[in-house]
Design brief:
Largest sheet: 6 strands, parallel
Number of domains: 2
CATH topology of the largest domain: pyruvate-formate lyase- activating enzyme
CATH superfamily of the largest domain: tm_1862 like domain
CATH class of the largest domain: Alpha Beta
Radius of gyration: 22 Å
Strand content: 5-15%
Structural class: alpha/beta
Distance between the termini: 51 Å
Length: about 450
């Protein structure tokens, strides 16, 4: 069979980094790890091609002669995904869809031929078996949360690595916390499931043998969900492999703020090659944290927690939200002050939304406040429910926060403060790359002159 895997296009949002990518001459921030992993689960005799619409355009010519189109994606890619499905229908090509977008919003995609939902390690083999016998069903779903030892190496040969800023590895699924607005536990459960240290080293070596050198993003929603295994097995194995290979990578990931409580874990992460971590701060308001059940952020000095992580050698990328029912008009100044005091250089501020399946979504339904499904875009001024605060006041305040924190005065004040506090790892020598010089020159010209 001739198979086409399609990753829909990302619009311009915080996470797409489209405006920043041009400085380092890359097309996309990271490849579609889910589709690359699915590709490895398909029969070896199939003819497989992948088009990432963030790197290359998709035309009807690409669909000619194709037997099946496999499409994945997140909610942010919904508009592009619908266009791809429409194009496939016009070309009379059957579509197989899966991933977070389709798992949470499958009712919006009745025109998709085969919905292979939840985790592919369970549902994809069922679909392939039925396909082989000529009796594929419209929808495949499961409540089973599989062990990750069933997850194969991603098929990296399908992409041109030079087009991407970083590669991706998934170490774990699931999160022990239960924040009201987050859909991670809805998708992957509370129990943290992990790959073995041998699997992770194998994935690192796999990327290395395909020629990758540079950034690797551990895409886990909470990398430190199983600290004991990280300390005893995974991080020592990564550190040993990195030293043996001459430190070809630098890592970043996502973790909860309680990382700051564990000096040993932070030191081991830095020794293994981790340089930055995204942390969901959400709000400096304890009332708002209580409202959304962000228990791990309560009863602590959040600014000090950020400082501890950055002093350990991990730059903190911070996530913030406005629009909680508990928020008053003072929240905007409080968030700006927090970002400045904590010296978080890269701060993502978004309006609260209620993803499908979350406790917030269900509460908004009960209270008659839900308006529609989320767009997934945290920069488009959209909310999918009626906020408690006057909406104009909320939108104006949100706009003011983003405008202020990225004005030159505020931004460079944070940069200088961060550099004063940041602990640089001394064990590895700095590896200069031509793209660094190119980005520096482009920054001087585009930002400083043009």
């Amino acid at each position: 069979m001739k198979i086409l895997l399609v990753n829909p296009k990302n619009p311009n949002t915080f996470w797409s980094f489209n405006y920043a990518l041009k400085f380092i001459s890359k097309k996309a921030s990271h490849p579609p790890l889910g589709l690359l992993t699915v590709a490895s689960m398909l029969p070896e005799e199939w003819d497989i091609k992948l088009i990432d619409m963030n790197v290359n355009s998709l035309s009807r010519k690409d669909m000619k002669g194709v037997d099946l189109i496999f499409i994945g994606g997140m909610s942010i890619q919904k508009a592009s995904a619908k266009k791809v499905i429409e194009m496939a229908r016009e070309m009379n090509v059957k579509v197989v869809a899966g991933g977070p977008l389709f798992t949470t919003e499958y009712k919006e995609f009745d025109d998709v031929d085969y919905l292979v939902l939840n985790e592919a390690e369970v549902t994809l083999p069922l679909f392939l078996k039925d396909l082989e016998t000529g009796n594929p069903q419209h929808i495949y779903t499961t409540g089973e949360l599989p062990a990750l030892d069933r997850t194969p190496l991603p098929m990296c040969s399908l992409i041109d690595m030079s087009k991407y800023a970083t590669m991706g590895i998934q170490y774990s699924r699931g999160c022990p916390f239960d924040c009201e607005f987050c859909d991670i536990t809805f998708l992957y459960g509370h129990r943290v499931r992990t790959k073995s240290a041998a699997q992770i080293v194998s994935e690192l070596e796999h990327l290395y043998r395909h020629g990758w050198r540079g950034g690797v993003f551990f895409v886990d929603d909470n990398f430190i969900g199983n600290r004991l295994k990280l300390k005893k097995e995974v991080l020592p194995s990564i550190a040993g492999w990195m030293e043996e290979r001459g430190y070809p990578y630098h890592f970043n990931t996502e973790a909860s703020i309680d990382l700051s409580d564990d000096d040993e874990l932070m030191e081991m992460m830095v020794d293994a090659g981790f340089e930055s971590v995204f942390v969901g701060i959400e709000s400096p308001s304890d009332e708002s944290l209580a409202e959304c059940n962000k228990l791990q952020n309560r009863n602590r000095d959040l600014v000090e927690s950020v400082r501890r992580i950055q002093m350990a050698g991990l730059q903190v990328f911070g996530g913030f939200i406005v629009g909680f029912d508990s928020d008053s008009s003072s929240i905007f100044d409080r968030i700006v002050s927090f970002i400045q005091d904590s010296k978080i250089v890269t701060a993502m501020v978004g309006l609260l939304n209620a993803p499908h399946g979350t406790r917030l979504y269900k509460r908004m339904v009960r209270e008659g406040r839900l308006l529609n499904e989320i767009t997934g875009d945290n920069t488009d001024f959209s909310m999918n429910f009626i906020p408690a605060m006057d909406k104009k006041l909320l939108l104006d305040g949100f706009n003011d926060v983003v405008t202020r924190i990225y004005s030159p005065k505020y931004y460079y004040e944070r940069v200088k403060g961060f550099l004063r506090d940041y602990k640089l790892h001394r064990k590895r020598s700095f590896q200069f790359k031509f793209t660094d010089l190119s980005a520096f020159i482009k920054s001087i010209f585009l930002l400083g002159i043009k």
